[in-house]
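Good morning,

Both structures are done.
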Amino acid sequence: MTERLSRPARAPEGDGDSLPPARFAYDRHTWKEIAHLLANFPVSLLGFIYVVTVMFTGFWLAVTVVGFPLLALGLIGARLLGRMERKRARALLGVKIDEPSPLPRHTGFLQRMWMTLKDPVAWRTVLYDFMRLPWGVLTFTITLTSLFVLWPVLPFIARGLANADRAMVRGLLSPSDELERRIAELESDRGVVVDTANADLRRIERDLHDGAQARLVNLAMGLGLAKEKLLEDPDSAAEMVAEAHGEVKLALQELRDLARGIHPAVLTDRGLDAALSAVASRCTVPVKVTVDLGTRPAAAIEGIAYFTVSELLQNISKHSAAKNASVEVWRANSRLLIQVEDDGRGGARLDGGTGMQGLADRLDAVDGLFVIESPQGGPTIVTAELPWRDRPAGEG
């Protein structure tokens, strides 16, 4: 009995290959669509007034100092209006639509403003709000009239108008596609890469000036004095030459250390396993290194991995008070994973002044990840991920 009654109840939904036809009934979905259509006029009027007032004012004042900041604020507001419309569409029209990715964070005011002015999500929302007023007036008028005049066919009318609204929301308020999102992120990360490169150049310049360059200047002065005393005081000249020889050795060692900091020869010649083992041998804490890579990644990725581990091990030596540490490197599908662990005091943070934030920014700039787990009392586990890029033939 139950089975015979249940089958006719499902029959009107079709054969599963087509959408169910619009029903001649006022169910809750129909009432939601009617509510959405009646709200179209006030909502679209608000959006149109906002766009005309704020956005056009920003355009007209673009020749002044306040024009572009005002336009950027207007686009931020347009994003908020788009969020409200997506929520309304989800609640009343049942449109499954995700929120777009947030704008990348920037530290500089001008950079943040420039990214906002180029935000495609905000500009599509501006277009949506600008063109919606005539549609809002039309749908409000037809729906309100149908409530009193065309009551029997209103469900069909509401369904058709609501479907047009669904198409507009999906077309203009849906999240940016993946390519668009990645372009915005890469433009943001470019500034981080430039800042990091400038900082590295300043560090190299400082190391050269304070280290090898100063020693070479002293060497030149010492050899000049030795030359003057060579005939009248050969013994003193010989001592000065011996001191100069020592200065040359120290200058060469500093230059080797500096070159190692730029890109160590062992990394180029033998890869991550040998290079990380060499770094670990200089750490003040015993370090177990495990590298499980079938092939070598691209040189750029290999270099970032090396310097990430190198700086983490330096932090362990200076700040952790650990007794043991470990480094593991392996490949998982299209990612290169790094995990550095120590049994020290813990409490490491991105804002702790130990260069962690710089590492996080450097990895983020190449679509990587940087995660710290470091409760007070330890242990500290740092996990880093980098995109795996195959090494081109003939490279290194």
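Second structure follows.
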Amino acid sequence: MLTWTADALAAEPAVTGTLEKIRIEHAVTIGYRDASIPLSYYDAQQKPIGYSIDFANLIVERIKSQLKLTELTVRMIPITSQNRISLLQNGTIDFECTSTTNNAERAQQVAFSNSFFAISTRLLVKKSAGIRDFADLDGKTVVVGAGTTSEKILRRLNVDKSMNMKIISAKDHSESFMMLSTGRAKAMMMDDALLAGERAKSPHPDDYEIVGTPQSYEVYGCMLRKNDASMKAVMDAAIADAQRSGLAARIYARWFTQPIPPKQINLDFQMSPRVQALFAHPSDKPAS
């Protein structure tokens, strides 16, 4: 067991939980998504990159500084919407920063850092489909990611409004878009920033448009294990400092308003007032 002197205890904040594990192992394990453009996805060398990954890297640097480590091994493990919480809870990953909504239901199982992004849930459709809003989905086939907040919203809407939609649950964003592009689904519901990513990487992005009244406003936070105050403090500080310093705005511009690798596509997705407000006032609260 590691021991501390009285002077060291007085000089350093308590290191417990995940931080203690990282200090002992000199390694941190991060979960990532492999196809959530531009948040967390593969570059041409199959290396995870993206807006969310940049925030994860800021957290890693903060951890390394906090623990005064000269070397810190970073392990990256792919996760999905379905397994991300269980992999965090069982210790396979130490944290994840991808496209996970901070909400009350998930907060019963995990904790969230300060939020680093804000979205609304809308639809991606072919312009030729004639779909302008959710009411136009009556009797149509709609694809949505399995295990996402959008899936829950869509299924509730289907029941509450008696819309007789056929809802397909896809394993990831790429499968969802494939169903839309091949005509198996008439619309794809997801977070608007992710919809912009799927549209941008299409061979014919001008064939698609993002439509519909937002069905929810959500914020993304980095997930960590519950009751892990020292880890959360480090993560919150890394994110808040980036937001207050202007670094977060530069990260946003890099991934949402400029050509991004590997194909140099430009999402042309301007910063929303909700993201601007989040950067001005860092918070770990769910969207209201």
